[in-house]
Design goal:
Elements (H helix, E strand, L loop, with lengths): L2 E6 L11 E4 L12 E4 L4 H5 L3 H18 L9 H4 L5 E8 L2 H4 L2 H15 L2 E8 L24 E4 L4 H13 L4 E6 L3 H17 L5 E9 L13 H15 L4 E3 L4 H5 L18 H15 L4 E3 L7 H10 L15 H7 L7 H12 L24 H18 L2 H7 L3 H5 L6 H29 L3 H5 L6 H6 L11 H4 L3 H7 L10 E5 L4 E4 L3 E3 L1 H19 L12 H8 L3 H23 L9 E4 L3 E4 L4 E2 L2 H4 L22
Parallel strand pairs: 1-2, 1-4, 4-5, 6-7, 7-8, 9-10, 11-16
Antiparallel strand pairs: 3-8, 11-12, 12-13, 14-15
Helix pairs in contact: 2-8, 5-10, 6-11, 11-13, 13-17, 14-17
Length: about 650
């Protein structure tokens, strides 16, 4: 990975570096390094209680976002397994509260949040500066705003379907008062947001809405990277600061759960190409960072996590606001949409939006002409657009039919989310499976309806060869119902019946020849000396427990001091002797009999209790074990002095 050095706030590189970007929120107008940062509709009173530390946070987020925009990720071909897709950033940033930003916990939380979000590597070098401007320098104060506004929730408002449905449900459904925070990335996006806000103000009680638009850009410079995975970090930071202006310790992202979890459309999707804008881990990481900065708990939540896109669209219908669908804007290709004055129709957000509206049976509220390329009959360019639309539908069919087991086995990415969700992990896996199953069924139902509508030869012959319907009806699109390999295996009972091996408990046979002072194991393996002395002493307690009918799990231990005293040695020597005995027993059993004994199979110990012979040994006569091994299977009950395991 190539390193990209980013010097911020007027800092200059100390030596020549090959990839340097200069960014400065305080640079003069017209400077190539200048970042424009403006927060509108804020009064002086609201800005007064914002500490320098949060102004630092705002600038850090702005620098990261702009560096993301102006540092390319390589070509769209993703050569060398996407090696150029991931980048390594080194930021040098002046701050007001240096001691805080030097805190390892805060640095770790900052880098962890950003790395997960964009799958790039980050390093930060902070320096102290007393020349930085206060937060108020980014705010053209509007003291005409209502100073008495009290809110119930801070909501990120992009102007897309999900954030619109969230705002409407919170205000009209729950009667909440909201502060809506918007990033206005273009004049078209700003126009769409203002139109929706005007409509909402007309339809809601006075004082229900407080809108705070924010502009962050690098003048008129053209970005070179359009994925902008760090945009949501900047977005969250803006809402975080607004929440603190109003004394809140929480904020909400409204986004459907399928996009939030964002499983890859196809197996070849690498790294941050699978966006993590509102992923539960990102929200949790952001919450950790903001909590560390505040030294108090701050939470980010997604109230729509368990809804599909279709279910989100139905929220608009439930609140009688379906007519606002056509006024919302979801397209990821903002520049292209601005030129066309409509959605592109080929990006994943457009495809997801169109399927959601059709599945909710609300297509009457948005014309197909709102998209430059029709969902089903529009010709797609070969390459990523064609691959994406085909992968989207094939994945939906897979999700609609696969079992919960197959889902969890196929999409291990869900466990990054599961560990961040409240509740039991198994319950959350089941809920995520059901969420994606419903999404798959909704998409499949829309496709089925469209195929049925065109159920004639002429209807299909007129289609472009590179449209979605042509891809679907071709033999290439045929997909078998997905079944995990584990599910294709015979049942456990069938496997057990077919297995020729005996996995029953094989008890170790042992004999003590007191006359020869030898311990004899199954197969005629014999040991004398210290092993005999140790086993013979422990066998006294073992035999007494057998004679008294003691249950196996209640056999007594001989404490280390007593056992060491009877052997005439100290406790360290006892531990060494037992260790050597175990090694000899297991080693020779494996070497000469090809049988693997475990250390506790003969002499067992438990911490603080002492030592004993394993209660599941079978103590037999020495003559029986000195016979050929082939006859051992005929040992009768009369030969065995230990009772059965079931005693």
């Amino acid at each position: 990975m190539r390193e990209h050095f980013v010097f911020c706030g007027g800092l200059i590189a100390s030596r020549n570096k090959s990839a340097i970007l200069h960014l400065d929120v305080n640079a003069p107008t017209g400077s190539p390094s200048r970042i424009n940062l403006r927060i509108d509709h804020i009064s002086r009173r609201l800005a007064e209680n914002i500490p320098d530390l949060l102004t630092d946070m705002l600038e850090v987020a702005a620098y990261v976002y702009c560096a993301d925009q102006f540092t390319g990720r390589g070509t769209s071909q993703m050569t060398e397994m996407g090696a150029e897709w991931r980048r390594r950033f080194r930021f040098n940033i002046p701050v007001r509260c240096l001691s805080v930003w030097k805190n390892p916990s805060i640095l770790d939380a900052l880098c962890d949040t950003l790395s997960f979000l964009s799958e790039d590597e980050y390093a930060f070098e902070f320096v102290e500066s007393a020349k930085l401007q206060p937060l108020q320098s980014y705010i053209p104060f509007d003291d005409s705003m209502d100073q008495s506004f009290e809110l119930d929730e801070v909501v990120l408002f992009s102007g897309g379907l999900d954030s619109l449905a969230g705002a409407i449900d919170a205000i009209m459904g729950a009667g909440k008062r909201l502060a809506l925070v918007s990033h206005q990335s273009s004049t078209m996006v700003a126009s769409k947001q203002h139109g929706l806000l005007a409509a909402l103000r007309d339809r809601t009680p006075p004082g229900s809405l407080f809108h705070i638009p924010v502009v962050i850009n690098k003048g008129h410079s053209e970005a070179v990277e359009f994925t902008q995975r760090t945009r949501s970090f900047m977005f969250a930071t803006l809402a975080f600061i607004v929440a603190r202006m109003f004394g809140r310790d929480d904020l909400s992202f409204y986004e459907n759960g399928v996009v939030s979890i964002n499983l890859p459309v196809a197996e070849h999707v690498l790294g941050a190409r699978a966006s993590r804008t509102t992923h539960p881990r990102f929200l949790a990481s952001c919450g950790r960072l903001f909590s560390l900065l505040l030294e108090r708990d701050f939470t980010l939540s997604n109230p729509f996590l368990w809804k599909t896109k279709t279910e989100v669209v139905k929220v608009l219908a439930k609140n009688n606001q379906s007519d606002l669908i056509s006024s919302s804007f979801s397209c990821a290709n903002v520049r292209q949409a601005t030129k066309l004055s409509r959605h592109c129709g080929v990006c994943s957000q457009c495809v997801d939006r169109r399927f959601g509206i059709l599945a909710a049976e609300l297509s009457a509220y948005e014309s197909a002409d709102n998209y430059a390329v029709d969902l089903f009959t529009g010709a797609h360019q070969s390459g990523p657009p064609l691959t994406m639309i085909e992968g989207y539908v094939l994945r939906a069919q897979k999700l609609a039919t696969m079992s919960q087991h197959a889902f969890a086995a196929s999409y291990g990415q869900i466990f990054r989310a599961v560990e961040q969700l409240p509740g039991l992990p198994d319950d959350n896996v089941a809920r995520l499976w059901d969420l994606h199953r419903r999404h798959g069924q909704e998409v499949v139902s829309v496709v089925d309806q469209e195929i049925e509508r065109r159920s004639s030869l002429a209807g299909f012959l007129d289609l472009p060869t590179d449209c979605l319907l042509s891809l679907i009806v071709s033999p290439v699109a045929k997909q078998p119902d997905h079944q995990d390999p584990v599910e294709a295996e015979p049942t456990a009972g069938e496997q057990a019946e077919a297995d020729p091996h005996d996995y029953g408990l094989k008890r170790t046979l042992l004999a003590i020849d007191k006359q020869a002072r030898r311990v004899v194991l199954e197969g005629g393996l014999e040991f004398g000396g210290q092993i005999y002395e140790l086993v013979e002493l422990l066998a006294e307690t073992f035999s007494a427990d057998i004679d008294s009918g003691t249950f196996s799990d209640q056999h007594r231990f001989v404490t280390a001091p007593i056992l060491a005293g009877r052997l005439g040695i100290d406790e360290p020597s006892l531990r060494k002797r037992i260790s050597r005995a175990r090694k000899k027993l297991t080693g020779e059993s494996l070497e000469k009999l090809n049988r693997q004994l475990l250390p506790n199979d003969v002499v067992e110990n438990q911490e603080w209790k002492g030592y004993r012979l394993n209660p599941y040994l079978l103590l037999v006569n020495p003559s029986q074990l000195r016979r050929p091994p082939s006859k051992l299977s005929h040992v009768s009950n009369q030969m065995v002095t230990s009772p059965d395991v079931g005693h």
